[in-house]
Structure formats: C-alpha cells, structure tokens
Amino acid sequence: MGDVRGFLKFKRRKIAYRPVGQRIRDFAEVAVLPKKEDSEEQASRCMDCGTPFCHGSCPVANYIPEWNDLVFHKQWDKARVLLTATNNLPEITGRICPALCEYACVLGINDEPVAIRDNELAIIEYAFKQGIIRSNPPKKRTGKKIAVIGSGPAGLACADQLNKAGHKVDVFERDDKIGGILRYGIPDFKLEKDILDRRLNLLKKEGIEFKVSTNIGLDYPIPKLEKDFDALVLTCGSRAPRDLNIEGRKLSGVHFAMDYLIQSNKRIAGQKLPKDQCIDAQGKKVVVIGGGDTGSDCVGVAHRQAAACVSQIEIMPRPAECRTKDFPWPKYPLILKTSTSHEEGGERDWSILTKKFIGDSGKLKKMLCVRVESKKDTQGCPFMQEIKGSEFEIEADLVILALGFLHPEPNGLIKDLGLELTAKGNVKTDANFMTNIAGVFSAGDMHRGQSLVIWAISEGRQAAYCIDKYLMGESCLPKI
Q: Can you spell out the DSSP letters for 74-98?
C-alpha cells in the first residue's frame, strides 16, 4: 500500500463534465478525462483493505486495490496489465458502468468511496494514448470454429476470449454495424462511437471476423451454420420492450425508447432517414415514462434535439437520497440518482400512473395521469393504489416509453433452433451456459435477462471458458 493516510489527505474528486450550456449543443462526450496527477492522487485514497469488497462486488472481479496502488506509484503500464486481465472493454465500462464496486468500497461506510470507475477509465485511456494497447493475435490456432451471434458486450467479450484461446471466431450481427446496444442503444454523449470502433479494429487485427447485416435463419441458414461451426453462442440481448397497453397507445407520437435512441444514433452517424419517419423532439413537449438509465438517456437526447420542455415520470416512489436499512453496505442501494442528462434541465416526478393518451386527428396531445401510493396486500406483496381525486393531465407531443425489456425476441432464432426458455422467457441453459441443444450456448441479457453491460461482459467471459472446455476438454481461459 502506497500512502496509508491517502484517504485522510484527499477527498473524493468526481470526474469533470463539460459545461451544460456547451454540451447540450452537440452529442460529444460530456465527461472530461482526468489529469494523470489527479488520478494518482485519487488512487491514493484506496485503503488496500484486507477484504476488498469492491473486488467481490465486481461482476468481472477487477483487481481494484492492486491497480489503484500501481497508479499511485505511477506504474501505469502494470496497472493496465491487471485491468485488461479481467475486463475486455474497460474503456466502455469506465464510461457507462454504474460502479457496483464503489457502493461496496469500505471507505464508503463513513466517507465518500474511492473513484474506482474514473481511475479505470484513466488507466485504459492512458494506455491507448501511449500506444501501449496493440493487437496481439494468438500464436497458435486450434482448428475449431465458433459462431457468436450478436455483437453487444456479451458477444464481444466472449469472442475476444475465445479468440485468445486460439479458436477461429466469426461474429454475426443483423444490424448494419457491429456493437449492438453499445452502438445503437447508448447516446454518443455517454459513449462516442469512435471509442467502440477503436476496440473493434483491435479485435479485427487479432483475427476475429465480423459479418454485419446477417440475420441468422434468413440470410444464413441454420443447418449451414451448424455444419460450418463447432459451437454456437447466442448473445442477441433482450430486445422485446415492455409496452404500455392503455387507451390511445396507437396515437402518433408514442414511441419505444430503443426506437428513439437507435434512430438518434444513426442520424448522428450520418445516416439519412425519411423525414416522415423521424422521431424528433425539436420544439415538442416531451414526456419520458420510466425512471431508469434508458429513460435518462432519452432525456439527454431530447435536450440536444431542442425540445420545448422535457419531463420524466416514474410509477415507483421517489428513492431515498442515501442508504436505507433495506440496503445496508455493501449492497448496491436503491437511491436517487441524478445523471448528466438530469443536470441539463427538465422535470422529474414519481408515483405517477399513466391512464390514457389523448389525441386529436390521430396525433398525441396530452396524457391523463393519476398519483399512486405503494401498498402491500395481506400476503405482503406490494402493489400500487391510485389516490382518489389526484387525476391530472400533462400536455405532450412526444412520449417515449422507457419501461425496460421483457425477454429476448421469441421468434426467429430461438424458435428455429427449438431452444427451451425459462419462466421469464429467457434462454434456458445449464451451469455451463449450454442450451438444450448440444454445442449451442447463450450468454448476456438473452440468458440472464435485462441487466448491466458489466454483467454481460462477465457472462460472455464465463461462457467462453465453458465453450473452450467443451471443445478442448480443458481450458486455459479464466472462469470469469
């Protein structure tokens, strides 16, 4: 441990953001990378705990105390080696991970936790800037071929690991570009796509082949796929959105969040869309229904599209601003989170149920809502009860439904392969990530259900270990 009193000398310093008035005029990244010396100072706050709960709470088991200590001692190259040993996409998680590790930081019991995510980002960006990150193709090939279907974080992590083991890996993507949710589901102001492309170019140089605009079952017959490859791994995500089936749902102006974000990302990338098909918030009264990260991303996009006003509503009660007895340390707490998008303006409200969409000539004009309160039935199960006399209307030209996702799309690949599903509609696997079809594996949201990018990476890595062991009898890859 470098400085035993570092956490007493220095307070936590959050990563800086571009001024609001500047950043809402474009889609460039809002965060400003910390200076090298600032990261070294922040790394000194790590207490090198006897039991590092941060490490235990990280789905990829990052060596957090170790690389913090190396950063403090200015050994950035060694810190990079440890970071990339457990995380295939640290430049991604360093930007968008909710940092489960920080909520489990021992220092966070009675002080602000170590800025772990910011330090992670500083390490990997230092490595790229110094030219330390280079392609490193495997020296030997096994002769085995694996198809990864879906190019989101789980698919990329799995493909990277399998390629490192010496297998020939082809990644198939039905969209026109690689990246899945990383490319089309996350706005550029959180993750600029040249960051993603930088990593993809490395993976290509290391021997992974990417095949876009390929819908397995239609563009590439499944019998041919099974013949051409020794194993298949499905990482297609959880793309069936949760809908709000109420009166007026079919009015023009009500859209799913992912449709809105995908369109925005494509337009920012320079793709031209027919004007009558564009979902644009310019000059409109926008309401985002759903209080999660996806809803927050939609708020930020609406600001940048020059919406007249933006509101975000949520059916659940307003979370507490600090830990409650229901979420003791080191649990990840349900607390109020204010994102950079929220800092840019708009209103937020909680405990609101949307009853009806109201329109004129087929176009959305307003919403009928009612306030609710959380109750429990005789069995102790929670439910929402409407508060009598609390009905009100919200004017709205554009409503974005950010209500999460139910499960993977059941038709197509799942149906064609005859895969078994769980009660929640996710792909069912055994402990080794194998489905009911021998040689067919699944990982990420498609298997786990809607979750975090860091969990997708973890699942991709674990699946890669299991696939390598299935093909070779043993594996040189880490289990996580």
A: T-HHHHHHHHHHH-S-HHHHHHH--
To the nearest whole percent, how much of the chain has pLDDT over 70? 100
β-strands 209-211, 168-172 pairing: parallel
Q: What pLDDT score was predicted for residue 5?
A: 86
The rounded distance, in Å, linking the Cα atoms of 108 and 122 is 21
Instruction: Give the domain CATH number at 89.
Output: 1.10.1060.10
Structural domain for 270, as ranges:
243-403
Q: What does the pLDDT look like over 136-148, one tens digit per residue?
A: 999 999 999 999 9
In a domain, 134, yes or no: no
Tokens of 371: 């306030």
d(CA 34, CA 54): 21
CATH number of the domain to which 362 belongs: 3.50.50.60
Question: With 90 as the cut, is the pLDDT of residue 284 above it?
Answer: yes
> 102 and 185 share a domain?
no
Q: 73-77 contacts: CB < 8 A, separation 24 or more?
A: 73/2, 74/40, 76/36, 76/123, 76/126, 76/127, 76/130, 77/127, 77/132
Does 220 fall in a domain? Answer: yes
Q: In the chain, how many domains are there?
A: 3
The domain boundary residue, chosen from 76, 95, 129: 129
Q: How far apart are CA 302 and CA 308, in angstroms?
A: 9
Q: Are 114 and 14 in contact (CB under 8 A)?
A: no
* SS3 (DSSP) at 354: strand
Average pLDDT on 216-238 reads 95
pLDDT of residue 2: 63
How far is residue 407's CA from residue 400's CA, in Å, rounded to a whole number?
20
- Are 48 and 17 found together in one domain? yes
- pLDDT value at residue 1: 59
- Is the CB of residue 355 less than 8 Å from the CB of residue 343? no
Which band of pLDDT confidence, cut at 50, 70 and 90, is reported for residue 378? confident
Q: How many helices (H) and strands (E) does the chain have?
A: 19, 18
Cα separation, 274 vs 350, in Å, equals 36
d(CA 76, CA 68): 10
Domain annotation covers residue 15: yes
pTM, full prediction: 0.96
Specify the amino acid at residue 345. Answer: G
Distance (Å, whole) CA 191 – CA 187 = 6
Residues 303-318 pLDDT 10s = 999 999 999 999 999 9
Q: Are residues 284 and 390 in the same domain?
A: yes
pLDDT at 41: 96
Q: What whole-number distance in Å separates Cα of residue 448 and Cα of residue 408?
A: 10
Check whether residue 217 and residue 257 sit in a common domain: no
